[in-house]
Amino acid sequence: MVAKNDKDGPASEGPTLAMQRLILEKAPAVLARLITDSEYLQKSAYDCDAVKILTKLLKRAYQPVPSFDQPKYWSPQADAAVEAESSSASAQLGGRGQNPVLAHRIKLREASLKAIGALSAGKEDYRKALVAEDLVPYVVESLCEWPRKPRQAKERSKDRPSGEPARKGPSPAYGTNPVSVIIAGCHVVRMLARSVSILRTSMVDYAVSLPSPSPAYGTTPVSVIIAGCHVVRMLARSVSILRTSMVDYAVSLPIFHFLTHGDVNVQIAATATMINLVVEVSPVRELLTEKGVMRILCDHAHSDNPALRLNALWALKHFVDAVGPELKKASLEQLEPGWLVRLICDDSQKAAFHDSRFKGSADDDLDEEMDMQPSDQPFRWLYGSNGSIRELDVSRSSRLRQAEDRLSAIRETELNPVRRARNDDVAIQEQGLDFIRNLIGRPESGASSETPSETTEMIDFLFSELGQDRLFEIMEAKLRTKPLHPFSRRTSAPGREPPRVLHPQARIIVAVIYILVHMAASIPRHRQLVIAQTDLLRLLAQQAGSKDREVRVALCHLVINLTWQEDEAEAQQCAARASELKRLGFHTKMETLRHQDRDLDVRERAKTAAWQIDQATY
User: At CA 319, angle to CA 298 and CA 211, rounded to 5?
Assistant: First the structure.
């Protein structure tokens, strides 16, 4: 449909042209929603030449718009010129108004960027194919409020600040990009930055200054900026793109400027893009560090907006990975240890949310909100046959019933405010725990109690800043089931069913385990600290039968690290740790996983864990 309508329409305005423009403005956005998070549909779109069609559409959106002629006075004669009889302001025609072609082009930018961002979230081949179509210059201009003609890398001078005059206003030919376009552009940058090669080339060589409007291109609205951010975010997933195209066009600089944009939606999109631009393999990481990205991300982590807070914490998690201890310590100090603990421990936030939303009604408690009935409007499954519309009978199809159940679950997740708030809390907790994990860092070879490593230093620093006992208490609390509003009058009445409980999320369990894995990979003193947490380990042993593969793999890693013997001097301590693990039931759990788990990786790691326990207690 997009390819069919992507052609020059009639010279004059009319219903046909209006319909053609509407299709081009809406179809890519619909395509983006369809293929998001669907590998099958992404491949289908790719096989149908979506890369060429969408890039052609984006390039079409940046064709300069002809000047908008001043409206003329009406005359009954076709060629007669009419002179103004008065020069007063009241006798003059008003402004030229909005150029309909330019307005269409701006909407086209946002729609095409959204579709490109959704497609580039898929495989590496999709991102490379998009960059091969000379996409990046157009994404870069989408990150500018006042775009100009997109230029190739060879057309840009190395000394950009002196090579291009500052932009101080919109261009009539290109207009103004709204915030939505800039956000979409940021998302594209984030996806492209997943490719290290693109990040290290196309996104660095061409710095993009904050421009001014051009009459030929207009002003980029917020919607276009957001769409551009999304495209960058998706393309940044490609390591090769991250090291090539993202470097060539220095897209990191406009993204960095958008971190402090006046519109919070642009800040959210830019912060999400930073998640893929501050990773260890990113060539723009040092540049962003020099610009002060860590301070801005820490400030955003204190935001009242949950989406901005989540993205900032996520980006900080990537930022502290593989940096030196001094920068890690500075990040924690800037974020504030007390605030980090508050983000991870959401009990007070849940209480505040509950009091504000449900105060004054004994029945409108959290349990009742969780039992909220779905919409009364039934699903209708329609199809066309021989020119007539027919409706399928759901009762005769188990597949349709499964589809309805799935749609109901999605609706519940998206519309239930309590569930949405809880999902936001869980996501922020996960990133906060992963931030602690990356602060500890990966263990270094050759480290010992005599020559402590950076990992050892950071563990001790965390204990001093967060409190050793407090940190273990937090992790233990994350593994316990929690009753949902246990003091509700509805659930405490005689004869009523017991209150429902909230089980720990698998991703939270994995985050907690890997913090312990990193601690156990340090010096013997830290392994002894971990094995001393009996209640915590007892809760972890219950997770050996988890349905989530990552939980089982992480548990195997923990047992392997706790039964690791650094040297002969640690033999007695290692045997004591292995005996304690055996007493807590870990040996039996590992043997069960070794023989019965369906995943080969889990079986092999459980085999190693069980063998090390046997060797230490032999």
Answer: 75
Q: What is the pLDDT of residue 356?
A: 40
Which long-range contacts (C-beta less than 8 Å, at least 24 apart) are formed by 404-410? Answer: 404/379, 407/379, 408/374
Percentage of residues in the chain having pLDDT higher than 90: 45
d(CA 596, CA 607): 11
**What's the CATH superfamily of 467-616?**
Leucine-rich Repeat Variant (1.25.10.10)
Q: How far is Cα 340 from Cα 278, in angstroms, rounded to an integer?
A: 20
Give the CB-side neighbour count of residue 224, counting CA atoms within 13 A: 31
Identify whether the C-beta of residue 190 lies closer than 8 Å to the C-beta of residue 272.
yes
Distance CA 109, CA 7 (A): 16
pLDDT digits (tens, 9 = 90+) for 550-572: 999 999 999 999 999 888 888 99
In the prediction, which pLDDT does 378 show? 66
Q: 3-state SS string over 455-484?
A: HHHHHHHHHHHHCHHHHHHHHHHHCCCEEC
Whole-number Cα distances in Å, 302 to 40, 207, 326, 343, 547: 38, 29, 22, 9, 34
Q: How far is the C-alpha of 478 from the C-alpha of 536, rounded, in Å?
A: 10
Q: How confident is the model at residue 35 (pLDDT cuts 50, 70, 90)?
A: very high
DSSP string, 109-174: HHHHHHHHHHHHTS-HHHHHHHHHTT-HHHHHHHTSSS------GGGS-SSHHHHSPPP-S-EEEE
Per-residue pLDDT, 302: 96
Beta-strand relationship, 382-385 and 388-391: antiparallel
* Angle, alpha carbons 612-614-618 (nearest 5°): 120
Domain boundaries, the chain: 2-66+98-283, 467-616
Please give the Cα distance from 233 to 187 (Å, whole number): 4
Burial 82-114 (b: 16+ CB within 10 A, else e): eeeeeeeeeeeeeeeeebeebbbbbbbbbbbbb
Residue 499, phi then psi, degrees to nearest 5: -65, 150
Please report, as a single letter, which amino acid is at residue 229.
C
Residue 436 and residue 418 in contact, taking contact as beta carbons nearer than 8 Å: no
Question: Is the Cβ–Cβ distance between 511 and 540 less than 8 Å?
Answer: no
**In this model, does residue 200 exceed pLDDT 50?**
yes
Q: β-pairing, 193-194 with 234-237?
A: parallel
Per-residue pLDDT of 350-403, as tens digits, reads: 444 444 444 444 344 433 333 444 455 666 666 666 767 767 776 777 887 788
If you count them, how many residues does the chain have? 618
Report H helices in 524-617: 524-531, 534-541, 549-562, 571-583, 586-596, 600-616
Its pTM stands at 0.78
Identify which has the larger pLDDT, 617 or 72. 617
